[in-house]
Amino acid sequence: MTTFSIIKADTGGFVGHSAVHPEMLSTAQDRLRDAVGGGLLLDGHAASCGDDVSLIMTHEHGPDSTAVHEFAWDVFHQTTAVAKRLGLYGAGQDLLSDAFSGNLRGMGPGYAELEFTERPSEPVICFLADKTEPGAWNLPLYKIFADPFNTAGLVIDSKMHSGFSFEVYDLYEEKRIVFDCPEQIYDLLMYIGAPARYVVHRVDSRSLTEQAAATSTQRLSLIAGKYVGKDDPVMIVRCQSGLPAVGEVLEPFAFPHSVAGCMRGSHHAPIMPVSQAQAHPARFDGPPRVVALGFQVRDGKLVGPRDLFDDPSFDGARRQAGEIMDYLRRHGPFEPHRLALEDLEYTTMHALEERLTDRWQPLPAQPVPAGL
Ligand code: F6R
Ligand code: MG
Ligand code: MG
Known about the structure:
Blueprint (H helix, E strand, L loop, with lengths): L1 E8 L12 H16 L5 E7 L2 E8 L6 H20 L24 E7 L5 E9 L7 H9 L6 H4 L7 E7 L4 E7 L3 H8 L5 E8 L4 E6 L4 H5 L9 E5 L7 H5 L7 E4 L5 E4 L1 E2 L15 E10 L2 E7 L7 H15 L19 H7 L17
Parallel strand pairs: 13-14
Antiparallel strand pairs: 1-3, 1-4, 2-3, 5-10, 5-14, 6-7, 6-8, 8-9, 9-10, 11-12, 14-15
Helix pairs in contact: 1-2
Fructose -6-phosphate binds next to loops.
């Protein structure tokens, strides 16, 4: 079995929270090469989206492997050291714990992992996002695996016709549920339409009994109990031969749907599909970005990546995202551009509100209308 892992962290920004420094990426790539040479990994590729470094790795240790997670933890300490030396912004931002213990759960870095027996040809797409949260994958995952208006294969491919099952996490109450689709799409949508709380964690093919997709589902603020940036999620999707085609997996991103994140992790904004060269939030620390890196996995080796959004067929989505930004930005500090109050709970606004607590007075008593 091959394990495909993406482990990511924001360990410092260049400039501000906009990108990573090339030296951080080359440090990560060097360490990945060493780990392949030393036999820990089958292969490794370092990539970035915005201020997050992603370690894209293949190995044979299974998901949640102590050795692989500890390796990633060490790499992030080394990229943090580069960030500190260069005076980059927020060096070590996502490393919330002092010491490594067992695996990365609750320690700050995000990860998506899945395990498979390699098919004769194994196309995999890695989606990396910046300035948003894991629930940002809910809408595209629904379209890819449950919407026949997006995915023609659901209707006309016999291996896809019996549908996919979605495992959904409740991030607030730490529980999970599985929905078999298409029968349970209405139940699924009841929950995943609220992406701040309910997040699709994995998708499985029902006829092939294969895992098709995995997402990173940590919420940093819930771990840290205070605002420490959005989680900037990653996702792995396997494609073709009874799973959605590459073009069906990319198709939802032609619509720059609204996600939570952007400036101070506190605004709704459209997610913009971009090439790696454009994967750097700018205007209003946004709009949130997503890149799609395609690989063919061969004997555990990563053949690629292909930069799949580096294509004019996504120009329309980028243009539309710019127009939606114009519209939303004119709301300034008003909802629905700014997140609803309950989603701002872990931001610095909460501390400001506390300073005003004493100035709030009860409303004057209302005169009771005669006759009541
Ligand atoms: C959002 C994000 C940025 C920062 C903003 C303020 O996830 O990372 O929008 O929140 O640039 O950053 P600080 O408070 O570090 O100056
Ligand atoms: Mg940052
Ligand atoms: Mg980030």
